[in-house]
Amino acid sequence: MSVAVPTSTSSSDQPAPPAAPRATRQWRFHLFVALMALALGGYVVSRLWRDPFQHAVAENVGDQAFFEWVLSYGVHLLHHGGDPFFTDLMNVPDGVNLAANTSITVYAILFAPLTMLAGPQVTFLAVLTLNLAGSAYAWFLFLSRFVTANRAAAALAGFFCGFAPGFVAHANGHLNWTSGWIAPLVLWRLLKMRDTAHWLRNGLILGVTLAVGFSIAAEGLFFTALAGGVFVIAWSLSPVNRAEARAALPKFAAGLGLTAVVAGALLAYPLYMHFAGPQTFKGTGFNQRHYSEDLLSFFAFSDRSLASWAGLGNDLAANKTEETSFFGLPLLVLLAVSLVTLWRSADDRRRATLRALMTVGGLFFLISLGPRLRVADTETDIPLLYALLQHVPLFDAALPARYALVLVGVFGVILAMATDRAFGAAAPQPWFAMGLVVALVPIFPVPLHYRERAPEPRFIADGTWERYVGDGGVISALPFAINVAADGQRWQAYTMARAGKEFRIPDGYFLGPDADGSEGKGRIGALPRATDWLFLRAALYGYLADLDNADRATARADFQHWGVEALFLPDVITGPEGPLFRSAVEITATDLLGPPERVDDVLVWRIRPGVDPADR
């Protein structure tokens, strides 16, 4: 199902075998594109690379801590064994369903040696950099194979896809969403299914590809599969393609059937855990209406772009990580003009491809707007397509705004086709070159912001904690770990990465079921109890509660529920916007538990479950 370049030609049309120097030039160009992609990826992440251990993405400290934990869990799996899709190391005693979270299992296992050698902080940045670079290069390969023979056009569009504003925004902490290379790889294998002579091999490879993609970015894989299916159906329904589609249908369907069998076999357990395992849930812990695209966001510029650096920023997204569209008005104008130009000069087959692309783009554009139309950060009463989909399985587990990321691929294909036409013709079109400059320069990425975070305490790094809790016992930093105070989860992760003794923690940053388990709704973090909220409130707001023996009795019950053997408070505690109110936490803990013990660079309170804190 070639978009532009035929997949095969007759023997009479075959050109003479290329000379060796031409093949060398092709490999040199491929190497050049790969190195440029890697350099640009490193540039985007450069401020974090200056100090991987204390610099964190400024817009998403909590998600970076979560992914560092998952990468460290890969070391735990190799060293201690266990379930890749469920853990009792967090959220004691209930545990966490990792299959229902973004567990990036493949990355965790593949990069485990690097994590043990350099730490999850370095692994996180390495994966983030490679994701961005690999996405651009993968799109270049896909576009040069299926869209245009013009390598420069494919490279330009590939770099746009890999470093589009939405994916650079997700570089603020999301190793799953920056894995943009999954989409062109899956689409490549899907279009190869047109080769009915090798349907068995192609079906098998596509099944394995889907299994790998699910274990890295399940949500993105769902979007890719949905977009690919819509494109194939729209392409096949065009009158000019119906005969070809009808002839290929039996083997194509057989190949997809084999894909389903292979992927189903490889993903049987993770899918069971995702949908029916312990601590699973339906939907998401986020407000879907809040995470919907504003209509004006498509014409605006993202935070991490040259245009925003020049003062053309905005606040139209839920947060800086979710700026999933933000293509800018110049690019949209260029694409609209290019689409009209391509349509006018296209034959029936090319128009069928363009029509299928527009179908995919239009559908995902509508879904990304969410259940109600939002304009200029104001929600209207106008219902949209997602209002019908928000409770449908799979759709209910994805945030609407993220569907706009599919437009990156659609725009990339149009950009490659238009660039090929503009510069591949006998008479190059200078207006298009000017349009590229005006459209792409404003959205060129700038490096991610970083924020200082608390250094790992010597109490943890030197293993002093082992004197206060047994291997596999429960100990917690104060405040208890959550997305807005993730230090405690990082300390556990760094301990796991050393492949030695480990401890468990209450709470943690993850997605789990809310209090009403019968409804299966999701929430961020563990179900709150009085004691962990007591410490979190002190850390976030500096609030000092007036404690009495009733509070101590509640704390005893909570500590016994968690099995906590010790609590510790480092000299510095940080949240999503910098240092938290450490002194308030110390006063609260001392009032509740009595004077602490100074050990290395932390304060420690020993806890006897069922006994401490004693009434006063």
From TrEMBL:
DUF6311 domain sequence ranges: 84-416
Disordered, as annotated region: 1-20
Keyword hit for DNA repair: no
Highest taxon, organism lineage: Bacteria
UniProt cross-references to Pfam families, sorted A to Z: DUF6311
Nucleotidyltransferase recorded as keyword: no
Keywords: Membrane, Transmembrane, Transmembrane helix
Biased composition (Low complexity): 1-14
InterPro entries: DUF6311 (IPR046278)
Regions that span the bilayer: 27-45, 98-118, 124-142, 149-168, 174-191, 198-216, 222-240, 252-272, 325-343, 352-370, 401-419, 431-450
Protein name: DUF2079 domain-containing protein
Species: Paractinoplanes hotanensis
